[in-house]
Write a structure and sequence with these properties.
By secondary structure, this protein is α+β, with helices and mostly antiparallel strands. It is about 30% helix and about 35% strand. It is built from six helices and eleven strands. It has an eleven-stranded antiparallel β-sheet with strand order 6-5-4-3-2-1-11-10-9-8-7. Helix 5 runs antiparallel to helix 6. The longest helix has about 35 residues. The termini are far apart. About 35% of the residues are buried.
Length: about 280
């Protein structure tokens, strides 16, 4: 009997020790996991960012909000947009709001923009265009690759600028619109981006490399745990053709609600304005 009780006590002590050991290992494991979560992510930041656009294609679509801030000669204006984008079809729809005029009068009606491979369609463009007609712009003719012209940066083109990342660093972990993200900061080269981009954006980014004051683009970008861009901010620079003044442009694109329906239909030929557009 004594031997049996001693065996049971020994077995019980062993069992308790085993539980304590497991708890200890669990706590250590949690501590290690927490340390990993707070520390820098695995992988070279440059390589991580060069492939960030691929995660958007895998996601399929998202909603987006855009902001384009331009500053020149002491004047700053902000143009905002909101809509959806299909990363597989390279189609997007934005409602773009222009700022009020300096006198404080009501601004222009929101411009509806359709983003498509090689083309930008605008409705409510003004400048003598009938309200029910669309204006089509061949983006291959734009010196900025439509990164600025439309008052919003095409979300997929914004992502593909990162394919030209030549330096980047992990800044830290934070949140964007409730999502946990990794913040990176770096610079990209538009010429390198154009060479690595998808066929639809190759020519546009190449044009931007030549049309901007510099092909070097500083950026801040925030990736979620699935590698998808949640927010990206580029800083472009170009020269005002009329006044030869440098213009600084900060383009911010926010992406959310991945997988959202993005039914974008391009206008029929008969709905496209064929007349002359007045200069504004």
């Amino acid at each position: 009997m004594a031997r049996g009780r001693q065996h049971r006590r020994t077995h019980g002590v062993t069992a308790v020790a085993g539980v304590v050991c497991c708890l200890g290992l669990g706590a250590a494991g949690c501590a290690r996991s927490d340390a990993v979560a707070q520390g820098p992510p695995a992988g070279d930041p440059v390589q991580v960012l060069r492939t960030a656009a691929d995660a958007l294609v895998e996601a399929g679509s998202s909603q987006t909000r855009t902001s384009l801030e331009m500053a020149t000669g002491g004047t700053r204006v902000t143009i905002r947009g909101e809509g959806v984008y299909d990363y597989r079809k390279r189609l997007g729809r934005l409602e773009v709001r222009l700022p009020q005029d300096p006198a404080g009068a009501a601004g222009h009606r929101p411009i509806t923009e359709l983003l498509a491979p090689g083309a930008l369609y605008m409705k409510n463009r003004g400048a003598g265009v009938p309200a029910d007609k669309w204006v089509r712009v061949d983006t291959a003719t734009l010196s900025d690759g439509n990164l600025v012209t439309g008052g919003a940066t095409d979300p997929f083109a914004a992502a593909e600028v990162l394919r030209g990342t030549n330096s980047a660093a992990f800044v830290g972990r934070t949140e964007v619109a409730g999502a946990r993200v990794r913040h990176y900061r770096g610079t990209a080269d538009l010429e390198a981006a154009s060479q690595a981009a998808s066929e639809v954006n190759r020519g546009l980014l190449g044009a931007a490399a030549k049309g901007f004051a510099t092909a070097r683009v500083p950026f801040d970008v925030y990736l979620d745990d699935e590698g998808r861009i949640r927010k990206i901010r580029h800083r472009f620079s170009f020269v005002n053709g009329e006044r030869q003044e440098p213009v600084a442009v900060a383009s911010t694109t926010l992406l959310y609600d991945f997988g959202a329906p993005a039914d974008v239909r391009l206008p029929e030929d008969g709905d496209i304005y064929a007349g002359r557009i007045a200069q504004e």
